[in-house]
Amino acid sequence: MSTGGYPRLGPHDPDPPRLWLFGIRTRLFLSLALLAALLLTVAAVLVASQARRELEDEMALRLQSVGAAAVELIRPEFVPALLSAVGSDDRFDLRRPRRTVLLRLRERTGVRRIFLADTTGRSFLDTDGTVSAGTSLSQLRTDRVEMRAVRAGRPVAAPLFLDADRQYRKTGYVPVLSEGRVVGLVGVMADADFLGAVEKLRARVFAIGAGGILAAFLLAAPLARTLTGPLGKIVPWARSLGAGDLSRPAPAAGRDEIGLLAATLEQMRLGLEARDREQRAMVAGVAHEIRNPLGGIRLYAEILSADPATGESARKRLGKMLREMDRLGAIVDEFLLFARPAVAAPELVDLVDVGAEILDAVAPQAHLRGILGVFEAAGMATVTAWVDPNHLRQILRNLVLNAVEAGPAGSKVRVRVARGVGGALRVSVEDEGPGITPEASERIFEPFYTTKAAGAGLGLAIVRRLCHLNGATVEFGATVGGGARFTVILRGAGPAAKEGK
Q: Which CATH number does 24-243 carry?
C-alpha cells in the first residue's frame, strides 16, 4: 500500500537509514552546540575581564614595590631638603645623585618613569629630563582619589589610562613618611602594553560573542520553521481525522522524526479507511438482507389487513405490525445512508428555500407531536451557499427530526439562517427540549450512540460526515431556554448572496 512519498516503514525498520541526518536530534545537537559556543564566549569574556583585573592588581603591586625601593634609595630623611631645593646650584644640588640612583632603578626594573613629588602635586626629582624641579604635574591633579589615599599614608595605584601616544600606562604611588607624617610621594609609571592586548582580546571576544548570538538567532528562525511548519500541517489534518474524515492523506512532513510520524499516521489512516470500508460494506449487506424479507413481510401484512375475512382485532394488530415495520424500515434506510459511499457535488444552493422546504417536509411528524416549526431568515430573501443540495437536505432533515423528537408538546422548533464572520453562513436548528447532558455531549456524534428509546443512533454521525464532505462544520450548544442548538457553518457564495428588503 503506497504512502505517497513517505519513508517506507517496515515492521522491523522503525528508524529508517539516514534519519539521523535530517533528524530532530541532529537539529537539537546543532542548537546545543550554538548554545555551548555562546556560553564559551561569555566564559571567555569573563576570563578576559578577570585576567585584566588580576594583571592590573599584579602590576599595581609591582609599581608599589618599585616605589618603596625608590623611597629607600632616596632616604626619607633627605626628602624635605629635596622638596625645598628649588633653583640651587647643580654643583651642590642634592637632586643629582638621587636622580642617578633613580635612573639606575628605572633601568633595572624596566619602568618608564620615577619621580618624587610633594603632596601638592609638584615634581622635584624626576627621571624625565624634560620636567624641571617645582613643575606641577597634571596627572596628579587628575588622580585626586589616589592623592587622598597617599596623603592618608596608603600606597595606591591609579587606573589604567591612555597617554597622548595612545599607549596604555599605569602609575603607582607610595607615600614618603618623615617623623610619622607624609612629606611627599614617589610615583612610578610603567608601560602596560600587555594589558592593552587583554583589552583587544576582550574586544575580539565580544565581537565573536555578538556574531555567535546573531548567528544563533539567524539559525533559530529556520530551525523553528522546520519543526513547527510540518506540525502546523499535521495538526489540522489530525483534527479532521479525529472528526471522522478518512479521505484526506496525511500531509508530507520531510524526512525527520516528524516525517516518520506523518508516515505512521498515513499508514494508520489507510488502515482505518480500509476497516471503515469493510464496516460500511458489512452494514450495507446486513441492511439489504433485512430490507428484502422486511418488504415481503410488509406485503403479506398489507394483504392480510385488506382481506375482508380478517377480523377487526386482527386488523388492529396488523396495523401495529405495519407501523413497527415502518420504523424498522426507517432504521434500515439510516444504515444504508451511513454505509453508502458519498461524494459531494457542490453547487449554489438557496438556504432559505431549502430550510423552508425541510420544515414543510417534516410538518406531519411535528403536527403529530404538537410541535410548531418556525423558520427565520433575518429578512433575507435569498442566501446562497456552496454545498451539495442533497447533502444539505439530509443534514437539515436529520437535525429537524431530532429537534421534533426532543421537544415537548406545544413547543417550537426554529430554523434560523444568518450570516457569520468572514462570509460564512450559519444554519441553526433549535428546540425547546431538555438539552444535551455533559455525558452525551462527549459522544453525541459517535455512530450508533443514542439516548432515545428508538433509532439506530446514526443521524448525527451522518450529519457530521456530510458536513465534512462539503467543507462545512457542525457545532452544538444550548439555547437561552436550555434547549439544544445545532449550527451548520457553510461557505458563502460571496456576491451571489442577495439580501431582500
A: 3.30.450.20
